[in-house]
Design brief:
Chain lengths: 95, 495, 493
């Protein structure tokens, strides 16, 4: 069982997902089931194989350095749960 | 350069000498019109969330497209740091949650940066030059800004900065003192400004430094380092290093250990303090950004950028020494700021006449610089024009005015006649040096006649000559040719 | 005309151009049909006013003889495509009230060509699922039933709303997306045609991301020809998507019905799974004989890394998803659950906003990317992806024009029948489709028969990169040879 409850809690915190106490054990089981499912990948000989970075071989296009967007603050905050003077509002962040 | 302790740089502790080892991570904002991956303006300031595109706000389904100018600027910077340009690099996501990081990740280059190893020559003093290695330079996105002082319970998030292109420039741990570190960041800033790839404005945050500091006994392996985050002036960088080195030495000499951690420098209290809150569970889960493809460049593209690079400070300094005959010190001072170097050359070459570069340099580095300093500007930012400096130097060289009068003339140009032509002012105000031998002789004779006792003393004590010269100059309003005054006095006093 | 909703898109288009029917009539008929079928839960949002207004302006164009390729054709849009001014939920509570101020490139292309939007189609939450049971807005009920049974069946997923709506005649065609099989598997379950084009063929701009390197837009349609018509409008280069490919879009419809004589069809032996139901094997064999009869040459091929595709997918896709879904944090849009500080707000918002399957995948993705596990899981999976792609390249290099496989390992199953105890059971649905996403290739699912229970079954054709035309040609050959699958009876009306 590679994933224990402590790891589940750590991963959930990294992913910023609150877990109810009774979810942890169950989730550990599910994650272990998925990890068991992918375990056979360990048997593949990948020596010298490049990991895939782009599935279609092509060159990345670049945009010209031109200002084409902006001045849409209304649209930017249109769906915001809390906003004031076009700022997004969040609970105080202490540095 | 040597990585062993340089004897002069060691710090004396209670139990012996210590060496401080410094490396720096500098975030330099790329000079570009638009952001790194969106078409929103990269311009500083603006109303809240006005320089923000749907991409910068990480709206669902939005995708990054790289700005070609940001790539070119990073390549130019790499070339200016004599670094290896990697023709194939890629972008990774650095995942973490923060309200001013809309995507929940920063697009950066972790594994394969655009620029590899390079080097910067740094003049620590007129007599000491060190080489600081560059580990890498990569492109990444800036974050937005959170304002914490608007409300007691809330923070206000503005994404105008979010997505602006940054170059992260990582040095090797090649610096051994606060002075070296300050000289390095100064030189780095100068190079970037010459290249036009970063404006170097530390107050606005266009250039920010994270400083890694560790201490060790000379000759021993590297100690545990602490990273001092976001120090926002060169002066504070020096203070932060000294403060942190002293703290670490204190801890070690008391038998303690240094924890590898991120610290913050508080200039008001003159201390660094741990930022443990930010340390919590750092696991950035870097992986290649699947929304982007590898960044592939042609050698021909890099060569073209290299060919179009401006003359950089080291080359300019060498040329100032070789072709203008300047002393190394003068050349260093002038090239430290590209505009000042240009100003100097404009003054030297003004009006298709040649004039003594050293004389021009003396004025620019002397009285003109003193004035500029007093008003908080650089020389080229003042109203004084290179043409005015050229004219001033020409008037002295032609014997039209003395050095003393030239100083007065400069004050007139500074205070009264800002756009004035120095030659016209000399003419209008009758500042012309008196070279008429008869007139000078009359003045000399008057002084000799009025001071018989001093004349007698002078015979025994030739150094009295200076007093007589002063008196004659005073009586002529400084306009007498000093050489003529000297000659006449020597003859008449018999010394 | 008896019931205009029974027309194929191609036939409706012809009728519109001949002005045998008006676009408003067509829209009205579809609106009535979808309103009568709400029990199927295909649509999350209905936009009838918008549809009628668009149809009216299409009628004006048709009248002037200025019809565009999809003039007046009512379509359903998977609710993963951002639509300006129309709520876009991704099937998630976290975007329950999100109204984009922008239009996805693919839907903009459809409106450019004159199509009419009927509404937004239900889907698995963030496209994560193979049964459409993970939607916050409730499962989609398949219009198909086993004869004599009223057990509710799944339409497949994640484009379950799209497939069910097309099968139930609630739109003439629908947009869908496919990350591991989410177009082809629901198409197979519902007797419709679905094509996942080559990665990069359609723009991803404005489509809520699941796994960026695998996601691809495509249509679900009533026939191969309809799918070809829709893909032509959807596809094309978009400078706003760095992974979008800049090459011209062919006239796919021209490929439909072309001769397949001489085409070389590969049959990958690794797709013959242990425990595969005999009826699936039989269907596959029929597909082989139809293509052989049509003049194609059949060869056995080997794609040795096939068995690793699904496990590798369950590393790559969740990893990318865990990062792509980080933006749903309750700060700029979407659900916010207050917290005592910002971290608490994030954690409560994301716990409440994401459903179980999404949370599970974010957790797996976060785990495989985390320090110490990255190389063992993510890097290894991406290396295996390279090997999977090489298998296909070798087959194509040896002269194979397309590969024929079953589309799914079974027919549709009942609601709640799979995956409740073990998530992997559900994942196995994509075993035949996921390799195609891993390699970025085009794949089409075409109805080919019925299961013993009378439910639709389908075959999949896999093509070379950017050779969707060959797939349309071969799929239409199967479509013509296979027994015609009549649409499901309208038990819901
Ligand atoms: Mg850093
Ligand atoms: Zn950085």
């Amino acid at each position: 069982m590679p994933v224990d409850q402590a790891i589940v809690r750590r991963i959930a915190h990294l992913a910023r997902i609150e877990l109810a106490a009774d979810e942890v054990a169950h989730l550990a089981c599910e994650l272990n089931a998925i990890l068991a499912f992918v375990e056979e990948l360990g048997a593949v000989d990948v020596e010298g194989v490049e990991p895939m970075t782009s599935v279609m071989p092509m060159r990345m296009k670049e945009r010209a350095d031109v200002v084409t967007e902006g001045n849409i603050a209304d649209a930017i905050v249109a769906n915001a749960p809390a906003t004031e003077d076009h700022y997004f509002i969040v609970p105080k962040v202490v540095e | 350069m040597t990585t062993q302790g340089r004897p002069s740089k060691l710090i004396k502790g209670a139990t012996g000498d210590w060496e401080v080892v410094i490396g720096m991570e500098v975030h330099a904002q790329v000079v570009s019109k638009a952001k790194l991956f969106s078409g929103a303006a990269a311009e500083f300031g603006g109303a809240p969330n006005s320089h923000v595109s749907l991409v910068d706000a990480a709206m669902p389904g939005m995708l990054p497209v790289i700005n070609e100018e940001c790539v070119a600027q990073a390549v130019r910077s790499g070339l200016g740091l004599k670094a290896k340009i990697n023709l194939r690099s890629h972008f990774d996501r650095k995942n973490y949650f923060y309200p001013d990081l809309p995507q929940g990740y920063q697009i950066s280059q972790y594994k394969n940066p655009l620029v590899g190893e390079g080097t910067v020559s740094v003049d620590v003093s007129p007599s000491e030059r060190i080489e600081v290695g560059i580990e890498r330079l990569h492109l990444e996105q800036d974050a937005g800004k959170s304002l914490h002082d608007q409300s007691a319970t809330e923070s206000f998030v503005d994404l105008n900065r979010a997505g602006v292109g940054l170059m992260e420039i990582v040095s090797k741990p090649d610096m051994r003192s606060a002075e070296e570190a300050k000289a390095y960041i100064t030189k780095l800033r100068t190079i970037l400004r010459y290249l036009g790839t970063c404006d170097g404005n530390m107050e606005q945050g266009s250039l920010r430094a994270d400083v890694n500091v560790s201490v060790r006994r000379p000759g021993e392996p590297l100690g545990t380092r602490c990273e001092i985050k976001n120090v926002n002036s060169i002066r504070f960088i020096g203070q932060a290093i000294e403060t942190e080195a002293r703290r670490q030495i204190g801890v070690l000499e008391d038998g303690g250990v240094i924890d590898q951690e991120t610290r913050l420098f508080d200039p008001n209290r003159g201390e660094t303090r741990s930022m443990r809150s930010k340390e919590e569970a750092h696991d950035y889960r870097y992986f290649p950004d699947p929304d982007l493809l590898p960044l592939e460049l042609d050698q021909a593209y890099v060569d073209a950028l290299a060919a179009a690079l401006p003359e950089l400070p080291d080359a300019k300094k060498a040329r100032f020494i070789a072709t203008h005959g300047l002393p190394a010190y003068d050349a260093s001072v002038l090239v430290a700021d590209k505009e000042t170097a240009d100003y100097f050359e404009a003054a030297v070459a003004h009006g298709a006449r040649s004039r003594d570069p050293k004389a021009v340099a003396n004025w620019i580095m002397g009285d003109v610089a003193a004035y500029a300093n007093s008003v908080g500007l650089s020389v080229p930012q003042t109203h004084l024009k290179p043409a005015q400096i050229a004219a001033l130097v020409d008037l002295i060289a032609a014997g039209t005015i003395s050095g003393k009068i030239a100083k007065d003339l400069l004050v007139i140009l500074i205070e009264e006649d800002k756009d004035g032509d120095p030659a016209a002012i000399v003419e209008a105000r009758g500042l012309k040096q008196v070279t008429d031998r008869g007139a000078i002789e009359a003045a000399v004779d008057a002084i000799i006649a009025a001071n018989p006792d001093k004349v007698a003393q002078a015979k025994a004590k030739p150094s009295m000559l200076g007093w007589f010269v002063g008196q004659v100059m005073k009586s002529t309003g400084g306009k007498a040719n000093p050489q003529a005054v000297n000659d006449l006095l020597k003859g008449k006093l018999g010394i | 005309m008896t019931d205009v909703t029974e027309l194929t898109l191609a036939a409706a288009r012809a009728a519109l151009v001949k002005r045998e029917i008006s676009a408003v009539e067509l829209a009205r008929a579809q609106i009535a049909a979808l309103e009568a079928a709400r029990v199927l839960n295909c649509y999350i949002s209905e936009t009838p006013e918008q549809a009628l207004a668009a149809a009216a302006s299409s009628d004006a164009r048709l009248k002037r003889g200025e019809a565009r390729p999809l003039e007046g054709i009512p379509l359903g849009i998977k609710d993963l495509y951002c639509t300006k001014g129309v709520k876009t939920t991704a099937g998630s509570r976290i975007l329950e009230n999100f109204v984009p101020t922008y239009e996805s490139t693919v839907t903009a292309n459809l409106w450019r060509d004159g199509a009419v939007m009927l509404g937004k189609l239900n889907l698995d939450e963030f496209a994560m699922g193979s049964s459409n049971e993970t939607s916050y807005f409730g499962p989609v009920i398949s219009p198909w039933r086993r004869p004599g049974s009223n057990v509710k069946l799944v339409p497949g997923g994640s484009s379950g709303g799209s497939a069910a709506a097309v099968a139930a005649r609630l739109c003439y065609g629908a947009t869908a997306t496919d990350t591991g099989g989410s177009i082809r598997q629901p198409a197979a379950f519902t007797g419709t045609v679905g094509i996942k084009p080559t990665y990069g063929r359609c723009s991803r701009w404005g489509i809520v991301a699941f796994a960026s390197s695998l996601d691809q837009a495509g249509p679900i349609a009533r026939s191969v020809c309809d799918a070809a018509i829709l893909l032509r409008s959807m596809a094309g280069h978009d400078p706003r998507d760095s992974t979008s490919v800049d090459r011209p879009v062919p006239d796919y419809m021209a490929a439909v019905g072309t001769s397949v004589r001489g085409k070389v069809i590969g049959i990958p032996k690794e797709y013959r799974l242990d425990g595969m139901p005999p009826e699936i094997d039989k269907l596959w064999g029929e597909g082989v004989s139809w293509l052989k009869a049509a003049g194609a040459k059949i060869v056995e091929i080997s794609l040795p890394h096939t068995r690793y595709a699904l496990p590798a997918y369950y590393i790559v896709a969740p990893a990318e998803a865990s990062s792509n879904l980080a933006r749903y944090d309750g700060v700029r849009y979407g659900l916010r659950v207050p917290g005592k500080d910002i971290i608490d707000l994030y954690e409560k918002t994301r716990a409440a906003g994401f459903g179980k399957e999404v949370r599970r995948r974010i957790m797996i993705g976060t785990y495989v990317l985390s320090a110490g596990y990255y190389d063992a899981y993510y890097v290894r999976a991406q290396k295996i992806r390279t090997l999977i792609k090489r298998d296909f390249e070798a087959a194509f290099a040896a002269g194979v024009d397309a590969i024929l496989t079953p589309a799914t390992p079974s027919a549709a199953f009942g609601l709640g029948e799979k995956g409740s105890a073990d998530p992997v059971e559900m994942y196995l649905n994509d075993v035949f489709t996921v390799t195609v996403n891993m390699a970025g290739l085009p794949g089409i699912s075409v109805p080919a028969g019925r299961s013993a229970e009378g439910l639709p079954l389908a075959l999949q054709l896999i093509g070379r990169a950017f050779d969707e035309e060959t797939l349309f040609g071969l799929a239409s050959a199967i479509e013509q040879s296979a027994p015609k699958i009549e649409p499901p009876s309208k038990w819901w009306t």
